[in-house]
Write a structure and sequence with these properties.
It is built from twelve helices and ten strands. The chain has 363 residues and is α/β, with parallel strands linked by helices. It has three domains: 17-86, Serine Threonine Protein Phosphatase 5, Tetratricopeptide repeat (Alpha Horseshoe), CATH 1.25.40; 104-179; 198-360, Rossmann fold, CATH 3.40.50.2000.
Length: 363
C-alpha cells in the first residue's frame, strides 16, 4: 500500500513536471511568435501557457504588448488591471491610481528622451484636472518641455539640480496612456504640442526646396533600429533633393564613408538642451529618420516626418500601418522582415520621386 502511494506520488510529480515543461514551452513559443509579429498565434500560446500554470503576470504582460500592437488598447488595459489585482510589485509604477483632481502633480520622465517627448502630450489633459503640473526631466529637455501646453514648472535631478515645488502626487510619463485609459479614438494627437516662438525659428539657413534632414542611427541599446549608411546611398544619389545630416553621436562620422557623388551636408552639432535641434527641424521640408528621438520631436512639432521602421518595432507604432495615430504628420515605411532595409530604402526612394514630381507639377 505504501509502495503504491509512493508510485502514485511519483507519477503525479512527473505529470506536474511535464505540465510545467509544456507551460514553459507554450510561453517561449508565444514570445517567439510575438517577435515574428504573428500576433494571433502569440496570444493563443500565451493563453495556453497561463492555462497550463505558467506565471500569469508574465503571460498578461505578453498579451498586453500584443494587444497594443494590434491597437486593441482596451484589452491591454484589462491585462494591466489583472496584473495589478494580483498584487505583484511593479518597480516602474509611480502613480497611486487615484484621480488627479485639484492635486499638485509631478510627471517624472525617467525613460528615454523620445518617450518624454512622446507622452508629454498628456500635459494639457492633466492640467484640466490637476491644480499644478510639474515635469521632472533630464536637463537637456527642460527648455523644450517648458514649451508644452499645460506644464507649469520644469525641474531636473541632474547637477546642479532644480528642486521641484511641493507636490502631492506623482506619475511616470509612460504611465499616462494607462491613466487616461487611452484608445485609438482618444489619443491626444493635436500637433504641434511643443510650441516654438516665431523669433526662434531661424530663417535662411537653407534656401532650396525639398530639403530633407536625415537620421540613420538610433541608440546603441537597440541596433536593429539603425540603418547602415551604405544602404542609403541610392537615396542620397537622387536628383532634386538636398540632404542634411541631423545624426548625432559617433555615427555622424559615417558620412566620411559615402561615395563622392553623395553630397550630404552635416548640420548636426550637439545641443545642450535640444532646443537648437527643434529650431533646426523647423527649417526642413521633410525629416527622414529611424526610430529615435528625432522622430518624436519632428512629430511633436507637426513637421512632415517619414519613419524608417525596423520589423519588430515598439508597440506604439503598432503593425500594418503606414500612418501613426500619435503623429498626424508622420508616414511609416516598415521592414517586411528583420534586416531588410533595402526594401525600406527602395520604398522611400519611390516616395521621394513621387513627392518631387507632385511638387513640380501640382494638380
Amino acid at each position: 500500500m505504501r509502495h503504491g502511494s509512493r508510485v502514485l506520488a511519483l507519477a503525479a510529480a512527473m505529470q506536474g513536471a511535464q505540465a510545467a515543461d509544456r507551460a514553459q514551452a507554450m510561453y517561449v513559443s508565444g514570445c517567439t511568435a510575438m517577435k515574428e509579429r504573428d500576433l494571433p498565434a502569440a496570444l493563443d500560446f500565451l493563453n495556453d501557457a497561463e492555462r497550463l500554470g505558467f506565471d500569469p503576470d508574465s503571460c498578461a504582460a505578453g498579451r498586453w504588448q500584443g494587444y497594443m500592437l494590434l491597437g486593441r488598447f482596451k484589452e491591454a488595459w484589462q491585462e494591466s488591471a489583472a496584473i495589478e489585482k494580483r498584487g505583484a510589485v511593479d518597480p516602474h509604477r509611480l502613480w497611486d491610481g487615484r484621480p488627479f483632481s485639484n492635486r499638485r502633480l509631478i510627471v517624472r520622465c525617467l525613460h528615454g528622451q523620445g518617450d518624454a517627448i512622446h507622452f508629454i502630450r498628456y500635459a494639457s489633459l492633466l492640467k484640466q484636472q490637476a491644480s499644478k503640473v510639474i515635469v521632472e526631466c533630464p536637463r537637456r529637455l527642460m527648455p523644450l518641455l517648458s514649451r508644452v501646453s499645460g506644464v507649469d514648472e520644469v525641474c531636473t535631478w541632474e547637477a546642479p539640480p532644480f528642486a521641484p515645488s511641493d507636490w502631492e502626487q506623482q506619475i511616470e510619463v509612460v504611465e499616462l496612456p494607462r491613466a487616461f485609459r487611452t484608445t485609438l479614438d482618444s489619443i491626444p494627437a493635436l500637433v504641434p504640442y511643443i510650441h516654438l516662438d516665431r523669433s526662434m525659428q531661424r530663417s535662411g539657413i537653407l534656401e532650396e526646396r525639398r530639403r530633407v534632414g536625415v537620421v540613420w542611427a538610433s541608440g546603441a541599446w537597440n541596433r536593429s533600429r539603425s540603418i547602415p549608411i551604405s544602404a542609403l546611398v541610392p537615396m542620397f544619389q537622387l536628383p532634386g533633393f538636398r540632404f542634411y545630416a541631423l545624426q548625432g553621436g559617433a555615427e555622424a562620422l559615417d558620412l566620411n564613408s559615402l561615395p563622392a557623388d553623395c553630397v550630404v551636408h552635416d548640420v548636426t552639432g550637439e545641443s545642450e538642451d535640444l532646443l537648437q535641434a527643434a529650431e533646426l527641424i523647423t527649417q526642413f521640408d521633410l525629416i527622414l529618420t529611424v526610430d529615435t528621438m528625432t522622430a518624436h520631436l519632428a512629430g511633436a512639432l507637426g513637421k512632415p516626418v517619414w519613419l524608417m521602421l525596423n520589423f519588430a518595432a515598439d508597440w506604439r507604432w503598432m503593425i500594418g500601418r503606414s500612418d501613426s495615430p500619435w503623429y498626424p504628420s508622420m508616414r511609416i515605411f516598415r521592414q517586411p522582415q528583420a534586416g531588410r532595409w533595402d526594401c525600406v530604402v527602395d520604398q522611400v526612394c519611390q516616395a521621394l520621386r513621387k513627392w518631387d514630381q507632385t511638387s513640380r507639377n501640382p494638380a
